[in-house]
Amino acid sequence: MRSIILIGLCVVFTAVFLALGAWQVQRRAWKLDLIARVEQRLHAAPVPPPGPAQWANLSQDKDAYRRVRLTGVYDHGREVLTQAVTELGPGFWVMTPLRTEQGFTVLVNRGFVPAAPKSPARGASQAPGPVSVVGLLRLSEPGGGFLRANRPGEGRWYSRDVQAIGRAEGISGLAPYFVDADATPNPGGWPRGGLTVVRFPNSHLIYALTWFGLALLTGGAAAYVVIDARRAHRKEDE
Fold first, then answer.
1. C-alpha distances in Å from residue 56, one per residue of 53, 111, 119, 156, 176
2. pLDDT in tens, 160-183
3. Cα of 117 vs its chain's centroid, Å
4. How far apart are CA 34 and CA 28, in angstroms?
5. Which of 78-82, 114-118, 154-158, 203-207 shows the lowest mean pLDDT across its residues?
6. b/e burial code for range 224-234 (CB count within 10 A of at least 16 → b)
7. Residues in Cβ contact with 212 at an 8 Å cutoff, skipping those fewer than 6 apart
8. In angstroms, what CA-CA distances link 7 with 15, 18, 140, 184?
């Protein structure tokens, strides 16, 4: 009876591990396809930003990191700083609403500023008038985490939560995405754009091999129990 239970458990676990391994193989194929599509977007010619009619259908898989070109006027008075750590060190992302010539507003991550000169260093870059910005479309980053939740009332932002920033700053007609500006220099040198890190962790092959390895072990254990039970049965018959 004990052997039957052990064999049954091994068979069940083997099936579960095989299913998890197969799922990781599928996830790996999806991730590789996503990486290939994003690479195409990164090198494609910039397109107009999605308008209100397209907002409901935006998705991470289909639209993230698409190159877009915005033309409009910045509203520097509603600028928000979100904490950031980049290759240049700790500091802030400069998030500024841009009223597009199409009539809606897009929050633009104009780039990075270090913590010390976050206020005065951008004076030269805040000139009024129409601008043209090329950058990467990014979907909103809601929240900020349990330990580093955004605090709009205190002006503390840890994530680029477009909806929350729009509510806090009273921005109407705001797109549900933001745009990371490219490395085109700003007057005065700050903020520094073009620091978007495009990285997709892809450990699915390792996970798949791990699950398949566990399936092999439990399958081997089941075979061992069966062989051992048959050997014991033969001894009893002798």
1. 7, 27, 35, 28, 9
2. 999 999 999 999 899 999 999 998
3. 28
4. 10
5. 114-118
6. ebeeeeeeeee
7. 17, 18, 21
8. 12, 16, 50, 65
Share of the chain above pLDDT 90, in %: 38
Q: Put residue 65 in one of left, alpha, beta given phi > 0 → left and psi -120 to 50 → alpha.
A: left
User: Which positions ≥6 away from 73 have C-beta within 8 Å?
Assistant: 98, 99, 128, 129, 130, 131
- Supply the mean pLDDT for the chain: 82
Distance set, CA 143 to CA 22, 109, 138, 170 (Å): 33, 17, 15, 18
What is the CA 98 to chain-centroid distance, rounded? 23
Q: What is the 3-state secondary structure (H, E, C) of 12-52?
A: HHHHHHHHHHHHHHHHHHHHHHHHHHHHHHHCCCCECCCCH
- Side-chain-facing half-sphere of 126: CA atoms under 13 Å: 15
pLDDT in tens, 107-161: 999 999 987 655 545 666 776 779 999 999 999 988 655 557 888 888 889 999 9
Query: Which two three-digit tokens encode residue 186?
Result: 């700003």
Angstrom distance (rounded) from CA 64 to CA 30: 15
**Res 123: pLDDT:** 60
**Residue 55: both structure tokens together:** 């907002």
Q: Which residues pair with 148 in a beta bridge?
A: none
**Rounded to an integer, what distance in angstroms lies between the CA atom of residue 170 and that of residue 148?**
23
Residue 212 predicted with pLDDT over 50: yes
